[in-house]
Amino acid sequence: MQNVLHHDGVRQTRPQAVIALHCSGADANEWSALKEALGQKYTVLAPEHFGCERVGAWPGQRAFTIDDEAERTLALIDGLDGEVHLVGHSYGGGVALHVALQRPSRIASLSLYEPSAFHLLPEIGNAGRRASAEITRVAKETADRILIGDCRGGAAGFIDYWNGAGAWNAMSLRVQAALTRWAPKIPLDFRALMQVTAPLNAYAALMCPALLLRGEFAPAPTRVIAEALADILPEGRLEVVSGCGHMGPLTHAELVIPSIVSHIEQAATRGLPQFGGAAPTLGQRDGISVAPTAAGISL
User: Fold this and answer.
1) Ordered alpha helix ranges (H), 148-244
2) Which residues of the chain have pLDDT under 50?
3) Three-state secondary structure call for residue 215
4) What is the pTM of this model?
C-alpha cells in the first residue's frame, strides 16, 4: 500500500498498482485470477492489445512497432502516482520489458512468464541462434499463410506451435472462428518483437526485483530468453514451473499466480526497489495440471 497524506493531516493508504499484460490471442481476462489473488491491497490494470475486440485492429496508417503497443501502458504509468508492478506473459512480457526500459524509475517489480523478447536471441550464444532460426521459421510460415488469405491455417499452425500438436483441433468452432478473425495481428506482433533494438545488456539498467518464470516444457526460444534475462537483470531470478509449457498462466494458474503474488508482495514490503537485497527465491512447486483454456494462445 502507498501512504498518502491527506489535507487533514491523516495518513491513509491506497492500493498499489499492478499492470498486467496478456499474451497474443488473449485479453484482459487472462489475469482475472491474479486480480482475485491480490485482493484489495492492489489495483490491477490489464490494458488490452491491438487486435482484441474491445481495442480493435491496428488502423494501418503506418508500420506497426512495439512502441505502438506500449503506448497504452506508458500512458497508464504516467497517469499514476508512485511505482507500479509490471506483469507480462509471452508477447505481454515483451511489451512489459520495453515499457520498463522507458520508465525504469517507475517500476517496483517485474514478473514475466516466458517473455517473447525474440530480438535478444542472436546475442545468446549458439542456443540463442538456433532458437532464433526456429522462431523466425515459425513467423515466416505463419505470415506466408496469412498473406495469401489462409488466416485459419496461419492461426492453426501458430496455436499448435505454442500449445502443442492438436491444440487447434481441440478448440471449439467458436474459438477457432474468433482466433481466425484475430490472426492478421500475428505477423505484426512477430515483427514488432523482432525489431526491438535494445541489446541484452540494456536490461542490466533495470534495478527492480525481477521474477522470470518458464514452464518445464517451454519452447526453446522463450526458454533461452527467460534464462538469459534472469542472468542479466541485477535482481533477476528464474523459477521453473513444473509440468507445464508456454501457456502456464492459463493452464497452470494455480502454480503461476501464487509465485507472482508472492514476488509482488515481497517487492512491495521492502520499499524502493533500488535499496535492499535481492528478492528471496521461491520454492519450485510440483506441477498439477488443470483444465486448459483457449483464451490465449501464444507469443
Assistant:
1) 151-163, 167-170, 173-182, 185-194, 220-232
2) 2-12, 272-295
3) strand
4) 0.87
Q: Annotate 68-90 with b (16+ C-beta within 10 A) or e (fewer).
A: bbbebbeeebeebeebbbbbbbb
Burial class (CB in 10 A: 0-12, 13-18, 19+), 129: middle
Residues 149, 223: Cα–Cα separation, whole Å: 32
The backbone torsions φ and ψ at residue 267, rounded to the nearest 5 degrees and listed phi first, read: -65, -40
Q: What is the pLDDT of residues 172-200, one digit of tens each?
A: 999 999 999 999 999 999 999 999 999 99
Residue 235 to residue 76: CA distance in whole angstroms: 25
Cβ proximity of 83 and 108 under 8 Å:
yes
> Taking the CA of residue 268 as centre, how many other CA atoms within 13 Å lie in the half-sphere pointing to its CB?
21
| pLDDT tens track for 202-232 | 999 999 999 999 999 999 999 999 999 999 9
- Among 291, 290, 269, CA closest to 280: 269
Across the beta sheet with 236-241, what order do the strands follow? 42-45, 16-21, 84-89, 107-113, 210-215, 236-241
Q: Where are the domains of the chain?
A: 2-269
pLDDT of residue 14: 62
Give the Cα separation of 49 and 41 in Å (integer): 26
pLDDT at 297: 56
Burial class for 124, CB neighbours closer than 10 Å (0-12, 13-18, 19+): buried
Per-residue pLDDT at 10: 37
Burial tier of 169 (Cβ tally within 10 Å: 0-12, 13-18, 19+): exposed
Superfamily (CATH) of domain 2-269? Alpha/Beta hydrolase fold, catalytic domain (3.40.50.1820)
Question: Is residue 139 within 8 Å of 195, Cβ to Cβ?
Answer: no
Q: Are 223 and 230 in contact (CB under 8 A)?
A: no
C-alpha cell at 19: 499492470
